[in-house]
Amino acid sequence: MLADEFGREVSGVRVSLTDRCNFDCVYCHNEGLGDTRGPMDPQDDEMTADEVVRFLEVVEEFGVEKVKFTGGEPMLRQDLEEIIRRTPDSMEVSMTTNGTFLPGRAEGLVDAGLERVNVSQDAMDPEEFAAVTKSGAYDRVMEGVQAALDAGLDPVKLNMVVFEKTAGYVPEMVEHVAENPGLQLQLIEYMPELTGKAEWAIDIDRVHNWLAEQAVEIEHREMHDRKRYWIGGTADDDGGMVEIVDPVENPTFCANCHRVRVTHDGYLKGCLNRNDDLKSMGEMTRDEIRETFRETVAQRVPFYGEYMVREGDGEWELNDEYVELAD
Question: Which of 87, 155, 204, 225 could pair with 252 in a Cys bridge, judged by C-beta atoms 3.0 to 4.6 Å apart?
């Protein structure tokens, strides 16, 4: 398994299959790009199934154990089941989706090898959901979550981005997962550096503190230095699990990152927050992929604490030492 100069082994990859999405979430930097009429063959700028599989077969040689398929909305790819079926057997396969295409496809995805799924859900009310996602698909998402559970994707983890427009819905979402076995909740800190509108950010510590007051049990995970809060029960008796993903201005989070990313158009990148470290895998030959993967891992740096550092005034600023990586 390859490791960067900070000792962070790369054990997982996140592969974007498309930047198209049938939602237009107000916090998303892609803003519902592209043709979203429904599942279709890969578009001209998207990796083919062969290219995705070739990449996964190569990184398996380096001990990569997990792959998560993302988008945009990955289920806009008609060949998603084929890609999952052809993913190396040694890899755990998961997916992040908005859930609208899970009805009718969830069972086939499980048969192909899908093991876990995250479904984006930012509110429990159709009108509030529509205000955030610019979509009238609330009922379809709820059907998708149930389809995933019926197909055996248990637990289903609900993703909720926490910012000014959704923070008030957190208690209701927590209650929802606590009352429904098979559901878990992942609260994701809003990242203004990706989307702009810094005024939408909230103090995520307030959410941590509130959950700590509600929790029966609190678990610490090494990965990204995350905390899990068990509400209404414990891990041993199916209590509702709520986890916070809080990367913003968090050196500890970045110091425990073990993933690299692949863009929909075939570029490797060492960090979600950066686009100055993109490396093309060329025409996707295996040797090119090996070389590019080695370079990407070798040049990975924790975004907060190394790439970005705090100055005397407490502000985060670019560390000049790493500017050369963009050249």
Answer: 225
Phi-psi region of 122 (alpha: psi -120 to 50; beta: other; left: phi over 0): alpha
- pLDDT at residue 31, rounded to an integer: 47
C-beta separation of 3 from 294 below 8 A:
no
pLDDT of residue 310: 84
Query: Tokens 């990407």 correspond to what residue?
Result: 296
Look at residues 107, 41, 104, 114 and name the one whose alpha carbon lies nearest to residue 78: 41
Whether residue 45 is predicted with pLDDT greater than 80 in this model: the reply is yes
Query: Is the pLDDT assigned to residue 325 strictly greater than 60?
Result: no
Cα separation of 325 and 322, whole Å? 6
Beta strands per DSSP E along 23-180: 66-70, 92-97, 116-120, 156-162
Radius of gyration, alpha carbons of the chain: 19
What spatial distance separates the first Cα and last Cα of the chain, rounded to whole Å?
Answer: 27
d(CA 292, CA 308) in angstroms, rounded, equals 24
| Burial readout 188-197 (b: 16 or more C-beta within 10 A, e: otherwise) | bbbbebebee
Cα dist from 299 to 264, 282, 317, 324, whole Å = 21, 18, 19, 11
Q: Note whether residue 307 is domain-resident.
A: no
CA distance to 135, 201, 205, 294, per residue, from 248 (Å) = 27, 10, 11, 27
In percent, how much of the chain has pLDDT > 90? 62
Return mean pLDDT, the chain. Answer: 89
pLDDT in tens, 72-86: 999 999 999 999 999
Domain count, the chain: 1
Higher pLDDT, 236 or 65: 65
The domain spanning residue 122 has which CATH number? 3.20.20.70
Give CA–CA dist 159/97, Å, rounded: 9
The domain of 275 spans: 12-300
